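REQUEST FORM: STRUCTURE PREDICTION
Request ID: SP-0412
Submitted by: Lab K.M.
Chain count: 1
Length (residues): 321
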Amino acid sequence: MSPNLRGALFSLAAFALYATHDVVVKLLGATYTSFQIMFFSGLMGFPLVMMLLMGDRRDGTLIPRHPWWSALRSVSAVATGVMGFFAFSQLPLAQCYAIFFAMPLLITLMAIPMLGEKVGLRRGIAVIVGLIGVMIVLRPGGGEGFSIGHLAALGAAFTGALTSVIVRKIGSEERSVVLMLYPMVLTFFAMGATLPFVYQPMSVTHLGLTAVMAFLGMLGALGIIAAYRTAPAVIVAPMQYSQIIWAALYGWLFFDETVDLYTAVGSAVIIASGIYIVLREGTPSVSQNRPVLESRSRMDTGTQPRISSWLKRFERTGDQA
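STATUS: Completed
RESULT:
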């Protein structure tokens, strides 16, 4: 089996796990607020982060070199989680993913002022086409109307893109432990502060589901790490769009959801434009920053470490071995 095929299969398996993670989010979202779900999900993920921190034996402190960018990145990651988890509770899974898939388009646009990325005519047209696809999914003025769930999904796509571009801007200078720790700490304290106002008693089963979420997130991250260590990003990155298939299947199995024509057509347009942007970024003469290809995480929600931070830790471990 070729490395590219292995990398693609690792990535497909990882995104299947992530899609299953999102089913649990939606199940819990029927009873609990996104604040409570994020608090317990982040709490369950802390032991993993502590193990990663203890394994980093390099000299250095936990003080960020870019405090303002790090603070903005942490806030945007937490906002992404709150809005993304809420969107899952309000919208069909496939519709959520279709809107979230706008992230590469937004990353491309944000990289112009923040990273000095030069976007040529072809990628510019791809972004415009992708945004038209988003409008098809949202169909403003359509029968169902524009809801707060749609607004939350759009907000999550925006803040998720902002988080990714900030990491691309400062990631080479910040320690991976700093990039891992601050969003998770902010998630813990910010979500904990809301609990007195939104807390609903959780059964043992539902607490177990939050642990399942953390476990699925960890397995998905390990799958993505294996994929990026096996195949180039231009092979791995497009595999994220396989989540729309899982969303349609899981939505039908668990939530009696169907994919309407507008969501299907809009998703196809968004995915096509996203894949084109990825392929163009994979050409060195087109992009030096590669903002989309280097955004190796799904939406950063502050409940799990970013994939790029994990990759740095694994690469250092391999170098030391």
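NOTES: Residues 3-320 form one domain.
Reviewed by: T.R.
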